[in-house]
Amino acid sequence: MTDTGFYEGLIGSVYAAAISGQRFAEDEVFTRLVAETGGTALELGCGTGRLLLRLLSAGHDVHGLEISDAMTQICLAGAARLGLRPVVHPGSFAPLDSTLRGYAAMYCPLNAFSFIVDDSLALESVRSYVAALEPGGLLALAGSAGDDTLSAQTDWVRRPDVLLPDSLVAHIEERRVPEPDGRCLKVERTIEVAGHDGRVRAAERGIQMRRLRPIAELAEMFAQANLAELHAYGSDADYILTGRKG
């Protein structure tokens, strides 16, 4: 079994196939926020284009930012099938490149901001987002501080199988283990791809570290970055925090 990240190689392909048609409760919030702000929005970590392409199809002006070439190629291929030509900037959002400017809104879905484990870098990144916003622009970040089940359920869990081309199926197991101080979460994922005969053709393992941040911690970063009119949707277990540039 080879090791990889979650968004490259075999494990990235399986992730893309699994998430492509999914919808999440937060999608409705981000869609409404983008519609209300008007102007051009930027999605931080647009990945396969799952949400980005839906927003573009609905007529919203949205750019994407993505660090993974593999995910970007999947996004562009999906866009071509829909007759769309999205703007997807290559690069990291930790922090944002200083050449990106003039956005009316900026959002980061699926708790991707938690990949920034270091708090100093996280604050620097939030400040870079604020610098890229127009006056009055809106920043919206999804976050989570986890819940009690994290410490109670640390065994491997079987996730739904994912059907792949050529009659292959991916079997997925995942384990989420909080660090002893409760500030970070280690997410481990293994994937085995098997044929119709059940024989395993390939396998990979991926590991992610995520920073668990309560609303109050992220709100403090927003305040230090001079964002105002802070508002949280949801609870510490799963939320979206918004703030507006003065």
Could you explain how this protein is built, in words?
By secondary structure, the protein is an alpha/beta fold. It has helices at 9-19, 25-37, 52-57, 69-82, 119-132, 149-152, 215-224, and strands at 2-4, 41-44, 62-66, 88-90, 103-108, 133-143, 157-164, 168-178, 184-194, 200-211, 227-235, 238-245. The mean pLDDT is 95.
Summarize the structure.
The protein is α/β, with parallel strands linked by helices and 246 residues long.
Name given to the CATH homologous superfamily of the largest domain = Vaccinia Virus protein VP39
CATH fold group of the largest domain: Rossmann fold
Number of strands: 12
Query: Based on helices, strands and strand pairing, what is the structural class?
Result: alpha/beta
* Unreliable stretches: none
Beta strand %: 35-45%
List the domain count as a whole number: 2
Under the CATH scheme, which class of the largest domain?
Alpha Beta
Shape: globular
Strand order across the largest sheet:
4-3-2-5-6-12-11
**What is the mean predicted local confidence, pLDDT?**
95
For the record, give the distance between the C-alpha atoms at the N and C termini, rounded to a whole number: 51 Å
Largest sheet: 7 strands, mixed
Order of helices and strands: EHHEHEHEEHEHEEEEHEE
Comma- or semicolon-separated keywords:
alpha/beta, Rossmann fold, N-terminal domain of TfIIb, 7-stranded mixed β-sheet, 5-stranded mixed β-sheet, 7 helices, 12 strands, 29% helix
